[in-house]
Structures are given as C-alpha cells and as structure tokens.
Design goal:
heterodimer; A: 183 residues; mainly alpha; B: 601 residues; Cytochrome C Oxidase, Chain A; two-stranded antiparallel ribbon; 61% helix; 2% strand; disordered N terminus; binds protoporphyrin IX containing FE; binds copper (II) ion
Chain lengths: 183, 601
C-alpha cells in the first residue's frame, strides 16, 4: 500500500530537529535575560569582525539557494560551482568567528571575567558548532558533486541541506540582534 | 521477500517507485542483531538494555535501603563485594550518596525513559499505524547507539576512584559544580554530564523520528482520530522530549563550563572548608529553572507511555470500547501543555516570589483535571466489562490504582503552603515513587506481558506473571505508603543516618520493615527476568495471529513478522481501534471494512 506523503519524512525530521535546537537556544537566551536583570552584569562590545561574518553567512545563504535551484534544473556545473562557493563561505564564517573570539580575548573580554562574557562565548560558540555541522554536511555534498562514481538526481539531500543552512543563518541573525539589543 | 525488504529501505519509503526492488538485503548476524535498522529489533535492544539497567539501579536501592533499615548493623559481605566503599561492612556516606544518585539517574532516564519509550515507541508505532518501519531507520539505529554510548560512559563512572556523581539525580550546583565540594563532584560528575549529553542526543534522534513517523507514515484510512491511544500517548511523549530535553542540555553545558572552564553561571560567594572560591556573579537558582523546565515534562515523558498502553490493554481485556476516546486524547494534550507550565512547583522554597508561586500552584492543581478525566475513563471502561485477568491486565489495573494514590498526594504538594512543610521529606519520595516510578513500571510490565507474544512469538509464563504482579503491587504499597507518614512527621529525604534526631527514632522499626519488603520485591523482579529470558526460547508458542482478540494492526502481521512487517500490502484501516462488543461481535479489527448494516459509533 502506498504511504501517504505530504512532506518528505527526512525534511519533516529536520523541521522537528530545528524545533528542538530553537528550544535549546531559547533556554540559553532566557537564562541570559534572567541573569542580566541581576547585579554585576557587564555590558560588552561585539567584535567588528562579526559584521563581516554576518555578511558572509548571508551571502552563503543566497548561494545555497541558487545551488538548489541549479540542482533541480540539472545544471550540473553551475551546481558544482555554487555548492563549492557555499562550502567555502561556510568555512570563512567559522574562521571569522574564531578570529572574533580571539580579538575579544585580546581586548580582555575573557570568558571567565563576567557572566555576561561567559554567555556571549557559550551562545556564539554553540551556534558555531551547529554551523560546523552544516559545513561538514556541505563537504559531503561537495564531494558527491565532484565524484565520478556517485550519480544522484534525488533533490531531497540538497533540499534538506538548504533548509538547515538557512536555519543556521537565521539563527545567527537572531542571536546577533538579540546580543545587540539586550546587552 | 525481496520486494518487501527493498521498500522498507529508508530512502524508499517515500518513493513509491519500484526502481530499487531488485537488490536483496543479506542479513548477517551483525546487521540483524547488532546494527539492525529494523524497528522491532531496535525495540528489543532498548528493552534488554533497559532491563540490565533496571537490575543495576534496583540493586543500588537495595544496598542503600540496607543502610537505612539497619543503620547500626555491619555486614562483612558488603565489604567483600564493594571493597573500600563499605569498609568494615557498612556503606560509607559518600557511597550512600553515590548509590542514591545513580539509582535516581538510572531509573528516571535509562530505564523509564529510554527503556520504556525507546522500547514501545519503536515497537508499536510502525506496527500500529501500518508502516513498514520508522521514517528514518538510520537515525533510529543511531538513537539506540547513542543510548548505548551514554550507558557505557555512565557505567564506567561507577568504577572511577572517587566514585560516580553523588549530588542527587537533580545535580544541583554548587555541589555539582565544584570539584572540591565532594568526592562525587570530581570526575564522576563530568562523566555524568557527558553521559547525559549523549543520552539527550539519543532521545532527540528517537523522538523526532517518532513524531515524523506518526504524522507522515500512517497507512491508508488511519486518520489521527483512528489512532490507538498508545500511539497518541507516544506522540505527546516525543513532543515533550523534543522540546524539553534541549533545555536540559543547555543547562548541562553551562554546568560543564562552570566545572571545567572557570565560568560562574551558577556560582557566587562560596566558601569551601575555609577557602573562598573565586567564582562570582552566578546564581544556582538559574540551574534549577533550567533543570525543572525539563524535569517536570520528564516525569510525564515517563508516565504518558504507561497511560497509553494501559488504556489499550484495559480496553482489549475488558472487551469493551475505551470510554471517552476523544476525552482521553484531549486530556493527554492538556497534560502535555500544562507540563511546560508548572516547573516551579519544585522550587516553592527557593525564595520564589510568592505571587509567582501562587500562579504555579494554580497551574499545578489544574493538572488534576485531565488526570481525573483519565482515571474516570479507565474506571468506566472497566465497569461491567467482560474482564480477562491476564497478567498484562492486572498490571494495567495496578497502574490505575497507583496513579490514583500518587496523584492524590500530588495535590498536597501542589499547594505551596503545604509544600513548605513537605518539601524534601519522605512525603515527596513516596509521592513520586508511587505516581511515577512504580506506576510507570506497571505500565511497562503491562506492555511487556501484552506484546511479548508479538515480540518473540511465544508467551510469558502466566503463573510466574501472577506471582510477579501480586508481590510487586503489595510490596510497592507496603514500601511507599508508610513513607507518607515519615514525611508528614518531617523526616527529610537524602539522609544517611537519622540517629541525631530523637524524634525520628520511632521510625526505626518502620525503616527496617520497608527495607525488608524492598528486598522481597527486588527478588520478585528477578523472577520476571528469568521468565523473560526463559520464555524467549522455551515459552509456550503463539499459534494464532491474534491471541488476545485485539483490534489494532500489529495483530494482522504474521506471528513472527520480518523486516517490513507485512509480507504483502499494508492493510487499509476502516474504523477506530475500539470496536469491541459491537453489534454482537466480540471484536472487529481495524482493517475490517464497515458493513452495510453496521451501527455508527
Ligand atoms: C495531580 C498531579 C500532581 C501534582 C499536583 C504534583 C505536584 C508535585 C509537587 C508540588 C512536587 C514538588 C514536591 C517538592 O519537592 O516539595 C512534586 C514532586 C514530584 N512529582 Fe509530582 N505532582 C503530580 C503528579 C505527578 C506525576 C503524574 C508524576 C510522574 C509521572 C510526578 C512526579 C514527580 C516527581 C518525580 C517529583 C519529585 C522530583 C524530586 O524532587 O526528586 N508527579 N509533584
Ligand atoms: Cu513536577
């Protein structure tokens, strides 16, 4: 008997997983808000580099989107280029974040100094870890795209990838705005 | 066989096109029993791992009950088996705390979450909704193996020099955050946190699969309102898990940072043995919020599957439709919502704003409404039923009894004014052991006795089942009922020795009695374990497809279903799961089309 299908189960899995990631960050940000209303909170400046990394991640979302379009239209070489660019932008973002953390430390904003700094490191750090997961997945797609042996026409993995990538992108924008607005 | 095997291959569930039908699944020992992607095998892996953990966790409770029951006696054999943890034949205080902590952790998470949901969500969801497997068999397998890794880490923490975590299953900081605070706060605590992080990943992978499978892979005709109540309860369980476990994870991560990276999320103004700690600016209460935001939903994660299975088993064995199906679903739903809104009832004495406290009192007491609806419906289903007292049915009825007893004491605790007196006493211990611990165990036993024939193609021995039931239910009440009195008298929980309190000396005999009964009940569980493993190979064989005369789809599969569950097409569903005693028929399975002259329900 044919199973009923509205949305592909893998995509649905991803949506539920994103829901639980949101809960994790909701837990952290609400802890942050609670803590901020208590004495001894120190206001911090975000490193400038975070602006560049934000631009990088935004662009990579666009290239990911275009890559998916190209894949669906079976424009192979275009897809290859775009997925490679997305992957490289992802790596660049990770590098920017780590340099950003390094700059913070140089300025004396170390993780141990104040709870507000600790939160900054934990929240941005956990985001980067989620993003690194995405970069690894991109690497897999990248290898598949250039592999001679594997021939895939199934758009589902690319669609799942794109959804997750946009998700970590939006998550970063949200966290950035949050950290800027509520310091 | 090849076509069945091919369509269950995860990627093909959705596809419907038959391009891949050619390749065979060669099942080796490893792919069948170890790295299996068959939901039924994964269910058995969860069940047996859970049973091993239950044995360990139960054994720990026997050990610390020895201390509580016979605080002045020494038992040289304890030193023989435990070495320096029981020098001179008496448990060391550190070891006592380690045992209590591990008992709670193991039973709450490893047995009643992974062992219960993991087993029955895996086993029943595809079989009862008419699917060949989970949405992603691969993630499902990973879910088990993350649980396995978590188990290894937790188990290894039992053997480190300074002992496992020992700050209670709720691991409140600062005790759990500072290595210096106790021996159990050293490496054992880090292993606890790592193990729980792995555990959380396991339950998230499992949970999202359960949700996706229930929503997307139901067979034709299986609308949501035709789902058996087991599936509804497993669905809400998974939703609770997916939304609340990540919050515990973030709480645990912050704790790991505090422990190992010098941050102060939870720490401030602490002096240990005259030494002032550098940590400043944190708040231990923050941890309690994060913990109980998971912790309260967690107790329902443990309870809901037991509710669902008992509903099903009670209906089947009363030979009557479940009373108030929609009310049952609605009350599960409202319990799930309320579960997120009451966490602070564990924190009434933390200096919580009394106004806020009164809101939490209100929300907490509201849970009594859907709980009462469910109890009413179980009792009315039983009422004038044609009851078959199988072991499964007895355990399901036992579940209802325990849920009533323990729910009533919840109403005491939910009132903050009473809770100020009762908090952290044996009253709380009695409350949650009856309503959560024993009740959910009863749901689990009911499930095992009922679905064992489907799992192994053989029956469990009935006589042993009856002995198991009666010893356990009588024993459970004898153990936990008296604890209410101890708690009302103010006897605090988590104490190694009460000798310093003149007023609690009167409970000496009672404690001895409780410990003795605990030992007897533990031995009765060994009876169950023997029955379980003996019957896998030697039990009476199942000879008919539908031995209980039940309506749900799992009984339309072959007696020993292969990977893919149905050799031919998946049956189509034409009715709800509770057409018992209808129009002169004893039961009408879900896959039977509605007859011309059939009355509506
Ligand atoms: C009418 C329903 C219920 C109410 C009003 C209620 C209320 C409470 C309250 C106020 C406490 C805190 C006691 C304290 O620490 O001072 C508590 C503890 C607890 N309850 Fe309930 N409860 C109810 C049902 C349940 C159910 C159904 C479960 C589990 C399935 C459960 C599991 C627990 C556990 C595990 C604890 C203790 C946790 C710990 O401190 O170690 N309760 N309950
Ligand atoms: Cu609670």
């Amino acid at each position: 008997m044919e199973q009923r299908k509205k949305i592909h189960p893998y995509k649905f899995n991803l949506w539920v997983a994103m829901g639980s990631m949101v809960m994790m960050f909701a837990g952290l940000t609400s802890a942050y808000v609670v803590k901020r209303n208590q004495p001894n909170w120190q206001v911090f400046e975000l490193p400038h580099l975070f602006w560049y990394s934000t631009a990088v991640i935004l662009i990579s979302s666009v290239t990911m989107h275009l890559a998916l379009r190209a894949f669906k239209k079976t424009q192979k070489s275009k897809y290859r280029t775009l997925i490679s660019v997305t992957f490289l932008l992802g790596v660049l973002f990770v590098v920017c974040q780590f340099i950003g953390f390094y700059q913070l430390q140089q300025k004396g904003v170390t993780m141990q100094k104040n709870v507000s700094y600790s939160f900054l490191y934990v929240i941005a750090g956990l985001h980067v870890i989620h993003l690194i997961g995405g970069v690894i997945a991109l690497l897999v797609l990248f290898i598949k795209a250039f592999s001679k042996k594997v021939k895939t026409y199934d758009p589902v993995p690319v669609e799942v990838m794109a959804t997750y990538w946009h998700f970590v992108d939006f998550l970063w924008i949200y966290l950035l705005l949050f950290l800027m607005a509520i310091r | 066989m090849s076509s069945v095997a091919a369509t269950i291959d995860g990627a093909d569930i959705h596809a419907g096109h038959d391009a891949h039908q050619e390749h065979h699944h060669h099942e080796t020992f490893v792919s069948k029993y170890v790295f299996s992607q068959d939901h039924k095998m994964i269910a058995k892996q969860f069940l047996i791992t859970g049973m091993i953990w239950a044995f360990i966790g139960g054994l720990f409770s026997v050990l610390f009950r020895i201390q509580l029951g016979y605080p002045d006696a020494t038992f040289p054999w304890l030193q023989d088996i435990l070495g320096h943890w029981a020098e001179g034949g008496k448990l060391k205080p550190e070891f006592y705390y380690a045992m209590v902590t591990m008992h709670g952790t193991i039973l709450v998470f490893f047995v009643l979450t992974a062992g219960l949901s993991g087993t029955f969500a895996n086993f029943l969801i595809p079989l009862q909704i008419g699917a060949r497997d989970m949405a992603s068999p691969m993630l499902n397998m990973l879910s088990y193996w993350f649980f396995f890794l978590a188990s290894i880490v937790m188990f290894s923490s039992l053997f480190v020099q300074t002992g496992p975590a020992s700050g209670g299953w709720t691991i409140y900081p600062p005790l759990s955050a500072l290595h210096e605070a106790s021996s159990g706060s050293k490496i054992g605590m880090d292993l606890w946190l790592v193990s729980m992080a792995l555990f959380i990943i396991s339950s998230l992978l499992g949970g999202l699969n359960y949700i996706t499978t229930i929503l997307n892979l139901r067979t034709k005709g299986m609308s949501m309102t035709r789902l058996p109540l087991t599936i509804w309860s497993l669905f809400f369980t998974a939703v609770l898990g997916v939304l609340s476990f990540p919050v515990l994870l973030s709480g645990a991560i912050l704790l790991l940072f505090d422990r190992n990276l010098g941050t102060s999320f939870y720490l401030s103004d602490i002096v240990i043995a005259g030494k002032i700690m550098p940590n400043e600016g944190g708040s231990p209460i923050l941890f309690q919020h994060l913990f109980w935001f998971l912790g309260h939903p967690e107790v329902y994660i443990i309870l809901l599957p037991a509710m669902g299975m008992s509903s099903e088993i009670i209906s089947v064995n009363s030979r009557k439709p479940i009373f108030g199906y929609m009310a049952m679903v609605a009350s599960l739903f409202s319990i799930a919502i309320l579960a997120f809104l009451v966490w602070a009832h564990h924190m009434f004495v933390t200096g919580l704003n009394p106004f806020l406290g009164s809101i939490f009192v209100l929300l907490t007491l509201l849970i009594a409404v859907p709980s009462a609806i469910k109890v009413f419906n179980w009792l009315t289903t039983l009422w004038r039923g044609n009851i078959r007292f199988t072991p499964a049915m007895l355990f399901a009825i036992g579940f209802v009894s325990l849920f009533i007893s323990g729910g009533l004491t919840g109403i005491f605790l939910g009132n903050s004014a009473l809770d100020i007196h009762l908090h952290d006493t044996y009253f709380v211990v009695a409350h949650f052991h009856i309503v959560m611990g024993v009740a959910s165990f009863f749901g689990m036993f009911a499930g095992v006795y009922h679905w064992y024939p489907k799992m192994y193609g053989r029956f469990l021995n009935n006589t042993l089942g009856y002995i198991h039931f009666w010893v356990t239910i009588i024993g459970a009440y004898l153990i936990f009922w008296p604890m209410h009195y101890e708690g009302l008298a103010g006897m605090p929980r988590r104490y190694y020795d009460f000798a310093n309190w003149e007023s609690f000396n009167m409970f000496g005999g009672l404690n001895e009695f409780i410990s003795t009964v605990a030992l007897v009940v533990f031995v009765a569980q060994i009876l169950f374990v023997i029955n379980f493993f003996y019957s896998i190979w030697r039990g009476r064989k199942v000879t008919t497809q539908n031995p209980w005369g039940a309506n749900t789809l799992e009984w339309t599969t072959p007696i020993r279903p292969g990977h893919g569950n149905w050799p031919g097409e998946i049956p189509e569903v034409h009715r709800w799961a509770y057409d018992y005693a209808k129009d002169g028929n004893e039961f009408i399975p879900q896959n039977v089309p509605v007859g011309e002259d059939e009355s509506k329900h």
